[in-house]
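re the bet — no i am not wrong, look at it urself. input seq straight from the record:
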Amino acid sequence: MSIWQGVKSIFSSSPDKVLDMASGVGGFIDETFYT
């Protein structure tokens, strides 16, 4: 499965899951780059 297919499946599944994932990734990036 390509990354793009994975992304599309994530976005078609559940907006709540997408938001959770986005905020999780954002927090991870903040932790990684801004500490």
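see?? The radius of gyration is 12 Å. told u. also Residues 3-33 form one domain. so pay up
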